[in-house]
Here is the input.
Amino acid sequence: MKNLSTGRILLLVSIGFVAAYGLRIALSVPSHDRDWKPEFQILPEIERRDGRVHIRNVRDWRYGSGGKDPLSETYVHREIDPARVERVWFLMEPFERWDAIAHTFLVFDFHDAPPLAFSIEARGEIGEEFNPLAGATRHYKLAYLFGTEADFLVRRAVALGNRLYLYPVKTSDGFPSRLLSDILDMTDDLSGTPRFYNTFRHNCTNALAESANRATPGAIPWHISFVLPGYAPDYLETLGYIPTEFDVKEEADRYRIDDIVRDLADREDFSSELRIRAALRRGS
Here is the structure.
C-alpha cells in the first residue's frame, strides 16, 4: 500500500474537522438556561385572559441622556387589547459601514395606551459579541423582547450610539392588530420552547415578515432584505407600506431620529414629542 501524501492527509484531517463541527452543530439543543447578558436574562411572558393580553417582563430600562450604563433596570406589566392598535412603526438600526447590515424592529401605537416596542434578537451570553456567520450555525438562541419605546430607542441611540430611522407604516384596517396577535403567539411559544436564532432563516426581519404573512397571506413576498435588512425600507416603500412622499433611499435623513431620541432621552413625554418632531422632519 502506497503511503498517503501529506496533502491527502491534510485533506482527510480537514474533512474530519468539518464533519465533527457539522455534527456538533446538528446535535446542539437550544436552552433558556445560560449565563445571559443582562438585557436578555428576563424574557416576556404572555397570558390571555378575559379578552385582554397580559405581558409580563416588558423591559423599561432607563439610560438618560448620557453614558452607556442604564440608570435603572426595571420591568413592567402591560395589559393590552390587540384590537386597539392604532398603527405600527418600522424602525431600522444600521450598525455596520455597509448599511445593508442592520437591525429592524417595530413599535405599536394604541388608541388608549402607551406605545409598545417589539424586537427579535440573537440572545447573547455574557462575553459574546454578535457575529453574522456564527448566527448561521446555531450558535445564538432566539429572544423575542417587548419593551417601552423609550427603552428600546434610547438604548440604541444613546447607550450604543447607533443611527435610528423611523418609518410610518401604511396598512389596511385590522392588519396591525392581527400582526401584533401573531407576534404575541410567537412570544408565548418561545417562552416554552427555546429556539435558535439564524442569520439567514430566522432573523429580526424575516421573522417579522413571516408574522406579517400569517396576518395577511402574501403580504410581504421574499426579498433580499430578508437577509440584508438595510434594504427593507426601500422594499416596504415599493410594496406600498411606507408612504411615498419622499424616496426613503434618496432622502433617508428625513426619517433619521437618533439625534431627536438623544435630545428627548430624559423626557416624560418622550413618545408624543418624538412623533411631533419626527413628523416635522419628514415634512408630514
About this structure: Residues 16-27 have pLDDT under 50 and may be disordered. Residues 65 and 263 are 7 Å apart (CA to CA).
